[in-house]
Design goal:
By secondary structure, the chain is α/β, with parallel strands linked by helices. The chain has helices at about 15-30, 60-65, 85-95, 110-120, 145-165, 180-190, 205-215, 240-245, 260-270, 290-310, 330-335, 340-345; strands at about 5-10, 35, 55, 100-105, 125-130, 170-175, 195, 225, 275-280, 315-320, 320-325. Helix 1 links the parallel strand 1 (about 5-10) and strand 2. Helix 1 (about 15-30) runs parallel beside helix 10 (about 290-310) and helix 7 packs across helix 9. The radius of gyration is 23 Å and the shape is elongated. The model has no long low-confidence stretch (mean pLDDT about 95). The structure holds adenosine-5'-diphosphate (ADP) and 6-O-phosphono-beta-D-fructofuranose (F6P).
């Protein structure tokens, strides 16, 4: 194998740049030219007017400078065309025309699906897990998760200080798509009193009862940590009728949100105020913590070595604290084990 390519795909994640840096360092070491593919799989579809918008020879000097930066230098995207076999043919012909013999795909399970299909079409691929969500069951670490938890933890600590000063309970929403791990870990790290996740069915009334118990015990600044996907597992609740009948403007058919949930809690618990904060993109756009960067460094090198040695169709991960690799197909089949014990521990107060 001579020339290889690298792309980042799906939501960006802290540590993606560190992985690209490591890939560039390793490729240079093994004498393999490296091409950066822009905006996920889009960069292979030849839709831009200039080739340079899609593909870029990566020089080690340039890439060394981006190692510690947040975001992804290569840009990222969700490329829906890639679900279509016709567009995947275009991608393969681009790779062949550019004489790119193998690809490192940094992304989550969707990106790995794409990599698996490219392997079936004869393009050797290695995946590096890059997603803040921690929703990949086969690995103990994904790039960006530790950073996202750190950002949420710092946000919740600050929020709890203000909440204590003003005797105001607070609702904090963390990211994670269908996975409650960021919210759960941040709730544990901050000693928050209530956590709500997509993995466990819940109701508005039940959370209000828990908050009321806290208030009755004198804890008037309790924190409710929500995972953004928690609305998926919420029992039906007529927010429109509840809020409008309690003096809060609300429109029929509007979805529940952290803000409307906080308004509901305020009214169900008789508090003067319950406020909400959505931590949002500060989680994805943060500087990677050392653990994420160090994993990126090791994973980037392993990915290049695997391609160099003719190994393909694998994803890299961490098992029992050690970096390892496993077939993409097995990784995608693995079932996530939610830490119900920790969830119960947070909520038992
Ligand atoms: P993540 O990789 O973080 O899970 P997405 O699920 O949004 O993020 O997937 C990222 C991209 O991977 C998609 O926009 C698409 O280009 C590609 N992809 C996702 N699922 C598939 C699939 N089943 N087949 C081919 N490509 C896919
Ligand atoms: O997968 C990463 C992630 O940040 C999820 O936590 C979130 O649900 C999703 O991406 C948001 O994506 P976007 O910024 O494209 O709406």
């Amino acid at each position: 194998m001579r020339k290889i390519g690298v792309l980042t795909s799906g939501g960006d994640a802290p540590g993606m740049n560190a992985a690209v840096m490591s890939i560039a360092r390793s490729a240079a070491k093994y004498g393999m030219p490296l091409v950066g593919i822009k905006r996920g799989y889009n960069g292979l579809l030849r839709k831009s007017t200039s080739l340079g918008d899609d593909l870029q020879e990566l020089q080690l000097d340039t890439v060394l400078d981006i190692a510690d930066q947040p975001g992804t230098y290569l840009r990222t995207a969700r490329c829906l065309e890639f679900l279509d076999p016709m567009w995947r043919e275009v991608a393969v012909s681009t790779l062949r025309a550019m004489e790119i013999d193998g690809l490192v795909v940094i992304g989550g399970d969707g990106s790995f699906q794409g990599a698996r299909l490219l392997c079936e079409m004869g393009i050797p691929c290695i995946g590096i897990p890059g997603t803040i969500d921690n929703d990949l069951a086969y690995t103990e670490m994904t790039l960006g998760y530790e950073t996202a938890v750190q950002v949420c933890t710092e946000a919740i600590r600050s929020i709890r200080a203000t909440s204590r000063s003003h005797d105001r309970p607070h609702v904090v929403e963390c990211m994670g798509r269908h996975c409650g791990d960021i919210a759960l870990k941040a709730a544990c790290a901050t000693g928050s009193e209530i956590v709500v996740v997509p993995e466990v069915p819940w109701s508005v009334e039940e959370v209000a009862a828990k908050l009321n118990r806290q208030i009755a015990k004198g804890n008037t600044r309790a924190t409710i940590v929500l995972a953004e996907g928690c609305w998926e597992s919420m029992a039906p609740f007529d927010m429109y009728h509840f809020l409008t009948s309690h003096g809060k403007e609300c429109f029929e058919g509007e979805p529940m949100s952290a803000n409307r949930f906080a308004s509901t809690m305020k009214r169900m618990c008789g508090m003067v105020e319950v406020r909400s904060t959505v931590v949002g993109y500060t989680q994805r756009g943060a500087l990677p913590v050392a653990k994420d960067s160090a994993f990126a460094f090791e994973a980037g090198n392993l990915a290049v070595r695997l391609l160099r040695d003719g190994v393909s169709n694998q994803v890299i991960g961490v098992k029992e604290g050690k970096v390892f690799y496993t077939p993409i197909e097995d990784a995608l089949k693995a079932k996530k084990n939610f830490r119900r014990d920790l969830y119960d521990l947070v909520n038992e107060m």
